[in-house]
């Protein structure tokens, strides 16, 4: 299943990202903020655990998110600000890393580096702002399944309908929570209207 956010604050923030006057620092902070909102939507009925805490009036049993069951995995580079944002909400969550780059001629993704903690019994929150052809996400999910991920939830900011369809066909069991779905891919496999290259926008580079 995929779920596009209906939150008008999310739309507002996505449109800040589209504006080329939004420079890299604000761009990253906006991705952080959007990621926290989308993560809250995705985790709204996630498993909880009872914990005993010390309150100002003594001990109390409270319901807490079972953060130990989560692993946050950004697809670098562009996924990095998503991790930074979600770690502000869930500072004790574990993280893993995949560094991937799409070949801009063939649009095929390549994995350059991975560092993934044990995934048995874990739910992976896979973080990448962009789903264009869907190739990078499909390859990342395949890799994480081989590593034993029990469940994978994809958090994304912008996607093209073609890419989302491709991910769903390849991995029916993966839920996608996305801020906004755009119109289409252009001839260079970029999302339109989109926001350009998310990695370049975030880190002030030009690929
Ligand atoms: O759906 P696809 O067609 O695979 O394209 C989407 C991928 O492209 C972007 O990363 P990119 O390869 O540009 O790397 P970067 O994060 O270093 O900019 C984006 O963050 C996705 O990972
Ligand atoms: O539109 C796109 C497509 C791929 N990667 C991006 O960052 N943006
Ligand atoms: Mg890029």
Notes on the structure:
By secondary structure, the chain is of the alpha/beta class. The chain has one domain: Rossmann fold, CATH 3.40.50.2020. It has six helices and 13 strands. The protein has helices spanning 8-18, 24-42, 80-89, 135-146, 161-170, 198-203, and strands spanning 2-4, 48-55, 58-65, 70-76, 94-95, 97-102, 109-115, 123-127, 130-131, 151-159, 175-181, 184-185, 191-192. The strands form three sheets. Strands 1, 4, 5, 6, 7, 8, 9, 10 and 11 form a nine-stranded mixed beta sheet that branches. The protein has a two-stranded antiparallel ribbon with strand order 2-3. A two-stranded antiparallel sheet has the order 12-13. Helix 1 (8-18) packs antiparallel against helix 2 (24-42) and helix 2 (24-42) crosses helix 3. The longest helix is centred in the N-terminal third of the chain and has 19 residues, at 24-42. The chain starts with a strand and ends with a helix. Magnesium ion (MG) binds at residues 78, 197, 199-200, 207.
Q: Please estimate the helix content.
A: 25-40%
Percent strand: 25-35%
* Low-pLDDT runs: none
Structural class: alpha/beta
| Oligomerization | single chain
Terminal-residue CA separation = 33 Å
Small ligands present = 1-O-pyrophosphono-5-O-phosphono-alpha-D-ribofuranose, uracil, magnesium ion
- Coarse shape: globular
What CATH calls the topology is: Rossmann fold
């Amino acid at each position: 299943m995929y779920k596009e956010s209906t939150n008008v604050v999310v739309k507002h923030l996505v449109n800040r990202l589209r504006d080329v006057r939004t420079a890299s620092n604000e761009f990253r902070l906006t991705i952080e903020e959007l990621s926290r909102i989308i993560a809250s939507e995705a985790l709204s009925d996630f498993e909880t655990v009872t914990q005993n805490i010390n309150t100002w009036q003594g001990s109390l049993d409270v319901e807490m998110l079972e953060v130990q069951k989560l692993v946050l995995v950004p697809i670098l580079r562009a996924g990095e600000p998503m991790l930074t944002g979600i770690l502000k909400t869930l500072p004790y969550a574990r993280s893993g890393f995949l560094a991937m780059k799409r070949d801009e001629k063939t649009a095929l993704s390549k994995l350059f580096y991975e560092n993934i903690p044990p995934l048995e019994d874990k739910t992976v929150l896979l973080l990448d702002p962009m789903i264009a052809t869907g190739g990078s996400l499909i390859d990342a999910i395949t890799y994480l399944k081989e590593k034993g991920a029990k469940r994978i939830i994809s958090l994304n900011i912008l996607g093209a309908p073609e890419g989302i369809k491709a991910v769903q066909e390849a991995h029916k069991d993966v839920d996608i929570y996305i801020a906004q779905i755009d119109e289409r891919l252009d001839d260079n496999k970029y999302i339109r209207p989109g926001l350009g290259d998310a990695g370049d926008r975030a880190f002030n580079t030009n690929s």
